[in-house]
TrEMBL record:
PANTHER family: ALPHA-GLUCAN PHOSPHORYLASE 2, CYTOSOLIC (PTHR11468:SF4), GLYCOGEN PHOSPHORYLASE (PTHR11468). The modification N6-(pyridoxal phosphate)lysine is found at residue 547. The keyword ATP-binding does not apply. Its EC number is 2.4.1.1. It comes from Phleum pratense. This is Alpha-1,4 glucan phosphorylase.
Length: 701
């Protein structure tokens, strides 16, 4: 999603830049909700062919797995043997907005050649073994994020990562050499002034040893020259501080699959250690945690994030809070060696898709009141709406546009789930990947508490309640059990609440199936309150928070990721804040371990209501147990749901009150849109271009 916004901005800013990825035949998965909860089925997006892609049979590169390292008499080294697959390019053109420029997203498909098809075996009836390599090639681009609980799964993921890196770098080098004659003198030292490679998280880390291999083994450079070129070419964006997402690959798996690249990684590690010992004696004690290789005898691994930081010329985080955490915590030791290496680049979203296209009614109003449509490519112009924030005419138009979007959303919900929702109720939405740190569990516990209180109210008391429709959407990773339990719980709560005649005029709970960009384009414009409630310090940035805010939706959230900056831009009064701050989290976890946490009675009440069987017979004990106890694996409420629950419920009560004052609410909505200018991906990409890549606009004349 982020990369899609970035490509849109690169093209619109006329930058000479393009993207590389893999052409996944079955995508992630299509989510279906059954009685048992989430089911995953293969995505069929390529079934009827894609009209946007252009297959490039003339752009094919060999990618080698396994094999061994051959040493020639002169001491030079080369990969040999193993299995060789071909990477075939498919180009997806990305047009810029109101430019003549189109850039390309080049996606690789994996193929085996006709020579690898054993005709003799096939004619002998050995069909599977005759096409073994073809079958292995198909696996590489079958699925995004294949399950990695097994050794086979881990190997396949590593294959995917290397396949992307090797094909893309061979392509980049081919283009550089092709243009040598007319553009540059052909010196490899000029490569970094012509090429910048941005590694989007740790998944493309293998670009580092592979670029080194190509320069040394294929182009004949020595180590020092190849390292200089690689270091000046490659930059790294960190997208997470979650320990399980900072990739660590088994050294034995790496050595088996990529023997030459593993040699290069070992040499990078050795030279880094030597550099620290010779230039920074004071850091020697930190080397074990800073090195690229973790050689612990139990489980020797390659730490991909460390490899990125050691090798890249620039490292950036994706929101101010996140970048500060990188500098002060995760990568603090490296900062003392390379203080200038670390930057912040707050994420952004494209206003073309996320307002102009997905919310035509609101777009027209914005253009009318600003007296220009230039905001679509200069989003800072939205601040011009602030002076009309109290204008009654604008209020009326704004409310009408929001109602139109809410009706469109209600139709989608009816079509997708069969549930009827009331467009005059407060539309409260949380859509994002299901993960314990994103705390959809807190949201549903809040809805359960609300339901219980409604059940206890008299008819007169209910009249004073702000009617609310709570919507949750997102995919849970196929093997992430607790995330799948959360999906089931939302559905089970909805089944009871929505069919309870005493309450369903005041509360509905709906799980939106198969969340994706097309669904988001309907949900975001129709949303009035959006929940971005991750444990502080755990969400690197988030970008859906920006999309909601841009569409005049008010956020309830913690001081996490880009929420911090959104609140600064839209104004503290137009953001519902709750929860612990990032710098308190470690201390609160320690308090919990020491038995000092006292749960709020409302939190206990909500959990008990689920345990009582009100929402069906499914056993939610393992899910609720993650919130119990003070320590231990899968216990001790690591994500602080219990600690933040009381301030969350209080903030939701403030939301209910604010929504009753329609004038105040619409003003808050207008000021959210008006404060969203900073969060254009045009601003983000302009900063990458100037401060990391060193490139300027190159418009087609």
């Amino acid at each position: 999603r982020l990369a899609a916004c970035f490509l849109d901005s690169m093209a619109t800013l006329n930058l000479p830049a393009w993207g590389y990825g893999l052409r996944y035949r079955y995508g992630l998965f299509k989510q279906r909700i059954a009685k048992e909860g989430q089911e995953e089925i293969a995505e069929d997006w390529l079934e009827k062919f894609s009209p946007w892609e252009i297959v490039r049979h003339d752009v094919v590169y060999p990618v080698r797995f396994f094999g061994h390292v051959e040493i020639s008499p002169d001491g030079s080294r080369k990969s040999a043997g193993g299995e060789v697959l071909n990477a075939l390019a498919y180009d997806v053109p990305i047009p810029g907005y109101k430019t003549k420029n189109a850039i390309s997203l080049r996606l690789w498909d994996a193929k085996a050649s006709a020579e690898d098809f054993n005709l003799f075996q096939f004619n002998d009836g050995q069909y599977e073994s005759a096409a073994q390599l073809h079958s292995r090639a198909q696996q590489i681009c079958a699925v995004l994020y294949p399950g990695d609980a097994t050794e086979e799964g881990k190997l396949l993921r590593l294959k995917q990562q290397f396949f992307l890196c090797s094909a893309s770098l061979q392509d980049i080098i081919f283009r550089f050499k092709e243009r040598k004659s007319d553009r540059v003198s052909g010196k490899w030292s000029e490569f970094p002034s012509k090429v910048a490679v941005q590694m989007n998280d740790t998944h493309p880390t293998l670009a580092i040893p592979e670029l080194m291999r190509l320069l040394m083994d294929e182009e004949g450079l020595g180590w020092d020259e190849a390292w200089d070129v690689t270091n000046k070419t490659v930059a790294y964006t960190n997208h997470t501080v979650l320990p399980e997402a900072l990739e660590k690959w088994s050294q034995s798996v790496m050595r088996k699959l990529l023997p030459r690249q593993m040699e290069i990684i070992e040499e990078i590690d050795k030279r880094f250690r030597e550099m620290v010992i010779s230039t920074r004696k004071d850091m020697e004690g930190k080397l074990d945690s800073m090195s690229v290789l973790d050689n612990s005898p139990q489980k020797p691994v390659v730490r991909m994030a460390n490899l990125c930081v050691v090798s890249a010329h620039t490292v950036n985080g994706v929101a101010e809070l996140h970048s500060n955490i990188l500098k002060e915590e995760l990568f603090a030791d490296y900062v003392s060696i390379w203080p200038k290496k670390f930057q912040n680049k707050t994420n952004g979203i494209t206003p073309r898709r996320w307002l102009r296209f997905c919310n035509p009614e609101l777009s027209e109003i914005v253009t009318k009141w600003l007296k220009t449509d230039q905001w679509t490519s200069n989003l800072d112009l939205l601040t011009g709406l602030r002076k009309f924030a109290d204008d009654e005419k604008l209020h009326a138009e704004w409310a009408a546009a929001k109602l139109a979007s809410k009706k469109r959303l209600a139709k989608h919900v009816l079509d997708a789930t069969g549930v009827t929702i009331d467009p005059t109720s407060l539309f409260d939405i949380q859509i994002k990947r299901i993960h314990e740190y994103k705390r959809q569990l807190m949201n549903i516990l809040g809805a359960v508490y609300r339901y219980k209180k409604l059940k206890e109210m008299s008819a007169e008391e209910k009249q004073k309640v702000t009617p609310r429709t709570v919507m949750v959407g997102g995919k849970a990773f196929a093997t992430y059990t607790n995330a799948k339990r959360i999906v089931k719980l939302v559905n089970d709560v909805g089944a009871v609440v929505n069919n309870d005649p005493d309450v369903n005029k005041y509360l509905k709970v709906v799980f939106i199936p198969n969340y994706n960009v097309s669904v988001a384009e309907v949900l975001i414009p129709g949303s009035e309150l959006s929940q971005h409630i991750s444990t502080a310090g755990m969400e690197a940035s988030g970008t859906s928070n920006m999309k909601f805010s841009l569409n005049g939706c008010v956020i309830i959230g913690t001081l996490d990721g880009a929420n911090v900056e959104i609140r600064e831009e839209v104004g503290e009064d137009n953001f519902f804040l709750f929860g612990a701050k990032a710098d308190q989290v470690a201390g609160l976890r320690k308090d919990r371990e020491n038995g000092l946490f006292k749960p709020d009675p409302r939190f206990e009440e909500a959990k008990q209501y689920i345990r009582s069987g009100t929402f069906g017979t499914y056993d939610y004990t393992p899910l609720l147990d993650s919130l119990e106890g003070n320590s231990g694996f899968g216990r001790g409420d690591y994500f602080l749901v219990g600690y933040d629950f009381p301030s969350y419920i209080d903030a939701q009560a403030r939301v209910d009150e604010a929504y009753k004052d329609k004038k105040r609410w619409i003003k808050m909505s207008i000021l959210n849109t008006a404060g969203s200018g900073k969060f254009s991906s045009d601003r983000t990409i302009d900063q990458y271009a100037k401060e990391i890549w060193g490139i300027t606009a190159n418009p087609v004349p």
